[in-house]
Amino acid sequence: MGARKQHKERGDLLPAAEHNDRPEQAFFEHTVDQLFNKPHTVSAMIIGGAILIYVAWTRGDAGLIENSKFGIIAACLVFLLFSALQMRDGLFFRPHPAFWRMIMGAAVLYLMALVFILFQNKHDARELLRYIDPKLGIKLPERNYAEQCDLYTPNDPTSSFRNLWDTINDEFIWAHLIGWWGKAVLLRDLYVCWFASILFEIWEMTFEFMLPNFKECWWDHIILDILICNGLGIFLGLATCRALKMKTYNWSGLSRFPTTKDRFWRAVQQFSPAAYDEYHWEILANWKRFVAVIIVIGVLSIVELNAFFLKYLLWIPPPHPINVWRLLMWSSMGMPALREYYQFVTDPNTKRFGTMAWLCCAVCALEVLICIKFGQGEFPDPAPRAVVWGWGIAVAVVTVGATSFFVLKKNVKPSPPTPKMDRKAETAQEYSDEDVDAPVEVPKPFRGMKARKAKKV
Hints:
17 helices, mainly alpha, globular
């Protein structure tokens, strides 16, 4: 009877100091915690169904097109609600597992939309996009960034560095900076980031005979893109990783924070990871790690290239919200997907490919298929001989060099895999002995006569 029952759920544990000093506050936090950590499938179904019935019956008839739009949006929202309540949990739990389950549902919806577009021709696909935005469906003007490559323009009436300022004011400059900030947080490796950054500039030079906006001046490729924008983004991303690695997390109740400011930052921390995991790619450890890293860099490059080819083939302007939403979708999918992929390739005990990783591979493949199908007849110019020979020699050198390296050199033992985060590990970290006292059972309401008799015995 003296041994205390240890509950698995985090909501059943609270610091002993709060239990002794403020039992009513402890009971309140326990109730709030149970509200957000226990499933509410039935109540969510009832509330969601009531909202759906109310909107369906009170909304007036707006015609076939508007009714179809509302019907598709409602169907997507119902599926997202189902995803948040019933889909499989992944490796991420912050800010809440339901958030990442909803991201998984959004990824499935995007996958289904790509399958639907794949069975259309490019003209019908462009017309379908006009139902989303009537401004779409118009061929984009071709923009060439390599027409004026003079850095110094003394005779220009506007500025002596007119070409430079025009390039800096382009939206792709900010896309480079913010994009590589996020990619550095995802990859968490300096050398892999720099290799992927340089590789994409090579991809741009490779496909500039197909897409005119890939043609850039030498200083745009090397100075602005690689060194300044990509380099600054990689620096900020890795600095973010170091800040998350060194940060001490305290996930105890709000009552342990005396001021409103401290409680505010505690609430903000709910949207930061419960634990930060380092990625040790170690590309030269063995041939499996080498292939795994090449696949990551290859998929990352393909996703970036798809953004340019899709907007060109579907006539979507670069600043349009569809492009922004696609980038946000890929960022949200990429975080758990890359974590699952890293777990799969580094942990020999992990035999199952992660759900988000599988979805990302499927979405990437469908985007490529759409680009290939819709690109027929759009790019009449053949690939330059220098591009074909250059890539052929590069692939041959890398293949022969890697094979010789791993045959002649003994495999290096890679670092141990990062352990999976589960609720038990998360709970143990949140209530470590360094931050709070030992957890005790939350005081419960009156137990009744049977409980009192048992206590006397």
